[in-house]
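Hey, can you fold this?
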Amino acid sequence: MRFMQKQVFRLGFSLLVALWLVVGAFVPPAAALTDEQKLVSEVWRIVNRNYLDETFNHQNWSAVRQKILEKPIKNPEAAYAAIRKMLQTLGDPFTRFLDPEQYRSLQVNTSGELTGVGLQIAINPETGKLEVVTPIMNSPADLAGIKPRDRIVKIEGLSTDNLTLDEAAAKMRGPIGSSVTLLISRDDSAEQEVKIVRDRIELNPVVADLRFSPQGTPIGYLRLTQFNANASMELAHAISSLEKKGAAAYILDLRNNPGGLLQSGIEIARLWLNSGTIVYTVNRQGIQGSFESFGPALTDDPLVILVNQGTASASEILAGALQDNHRATLVGETTFGKGLIQSLFELSDGSGLAVTIAKYETPSHRDINKLGITPDQVISQESITRTQIATPEDLQYQGALELLKTSSVFAGVDTGVN
């Protein structure tokens, strides 16, 4: 496996190359191309060499390029529109073009800083509708009551039916203190308008606390909200601190964690595993790569992971790795089911291109795309407020405590309680 990509980002990104040469239809020689046409051709070549589906959505990919270049492209905006039109023929919402502003914004977001409403969004590949993966904890969207799986019907009165993911995100961005109105559709209620005031989003991805079970066992509670550039380091510090405080077991809360950097998920899996495969990647030629853990783990204490429908991408990689390696027991609901990997390519004019280059499989070779990961113990619950998380009102958290109480690994643990 050769590494070509400079930066990897959200929703599970990896460094992988798949080479497949296509004899294309005639296009004008490179010297005759305008800068705008060269940009279109640059995007076409990257997709041609790396895209997961070698049928390109059952179409002649060379003919798509020829058709696009036959029409005049007079300025950068026209080139961007042509590129987006070309990518739409793939039928893949995760393979997308980002203009220079969107590309810079994405780089900032994955670095651990963010300004806006605090929503992680995706286009449902089955319905084509814009959905909330999860609101970022304590963000304006979270405080406004937005929930995972909410459908965003309109943004400022504009229907989202024909918006790309990045166009929708751009319409929700804005200066701190400004507001945006969303029309939200939810399965259990009528459509409702929600006004959200934009603010700076705190992206410390780790919440850590030493709790005690009803039996007095010290338990380290860790809530991981996303896989940004800081996540692995912050979680390692939290585990080390809890170990010093005497934690005898852990609950890792991945609920409503939409993922992020694939490498971050791999590094976090290594914090828990002494050895074993973390994830397999499979390109369009069926060539497998893998990421391994070589230890030592920071702790061998018992671990329960909480998951739900908002647990996606890198979160699923982590949960699947620890479940398949019998390192953790999963409690909650079936996860989101995003098993595709994108790489981010920087283009010659400062714009960017996200391309689906591979799929991932768990260590037991489960392909979870559109299927999700089923927890070992299924516990469904109605949505709870953020203040109810990890409290007696949180049925999934209580289920984790009960599981730890009855686990044989606690036999002989000195809780200090008589």
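Oh, and this one too while you're at it.
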Amino acid sequence: MRPNKLFVFAVLAAFVLFTFFQACKKGTDTTLINTYPAVLAAFGSNIDLNNLSNYTGQTIPAYITKDNSAADPVTNAGATLGRVLFYDKNLSVTNTIACASCHKQSMAFGDSVIQSLGANGLTARHSMRLVNARFAQEVRFFWDKRAASLEDQTTQPIQNHNEMGYSGANGDPGIGVLIAKLQAIPYYNELFKFVYGDSVITQTRMQNAMSQFVRSIQSFDSKFDAGMAVANNLNQDFSNYTAQENLGKQLFLAPPALPGAPGVPILGAGCQGCHRAPEFDIDPNAANNGIISVAGNPLLTDITNTNPPSLRNLLNPAGKPNGLFMHDGSINSLAGVINHYNLIAINPINTNLDPRLANGGKGQSLNLSQPQKDAIAAFLATLSGNDVYTNKKWASPFLK
């Protein structure tokens, strides 16, 4: 080869290498461009199908043993698709409402208002926090357990007239219309093929993917978890707790004194009986907690609400509530919640009051002192982590 040809060859080789490295610097993957151009156009570097976010390999403490994901285990690919569906406003008839509209990452995937605004009106109940939904014995979902599984739950808001509008009744299009709509969106063709091997969209595939994303949303970086990791014993004082927080933990875990027993010191509030540490999930056998009003209309009665979310991340890192409390959003502070449980009167209308709160028809009167109430609130505040509010793998993937 002549010297001038060697020179030309060297220049061409240098140009190719320069172009390749520049592409790498900009985060552009040539495989992704060629194979998933629509995904790249919609999400940019927020979703890299050649380097998926870690949803399956997250650290779960050894003391967390409850898990309702056996029928639909979390996968990196499925949760990635679920993340897109969760944040996509195309899932509503008006293209204005996504699951994330009512379940905000900044509020542990809850909402700040009593009733969330949907495509055609308000939700019937307060939108509950979704964090740690996986780590519970209960497999049913919604406040009233009407969904047999999280998979069943994920598409019910889509098929609700007020929420996302694909009810298939009273002039609403059905979910089949939504599926045809999504099938025409290029990034869904690529994503469904990536996850399932072909681009066919079905309700079951949507449900599985969204459930995997929701179950991936976990929080185990709280002060409680740091203390539990060292003590490995719920009933032992945590070395990283204040005296007030340890008192609150003791009161939370211990059963209350027998009602009416004179001179018996108040050693417990009995919270653990229903909200079971260390997952802080609800006992599947729990009945109504004494709150029976309907969200938005306290003059109406609803006694079917028995399935609250985990007590984890009740407060944000600044110590402010992640929205309102109870299915009707009727309580706005931990102090208000504790006061409710401190004194529950018998209401003859409520035929579904949990027996542990009914006390044989006498109602619940814990007689907690103010310092004890404050201690329980301080303990509940230790159940909040930080990562769940800012981790990008749970944030909106859309560029716009």
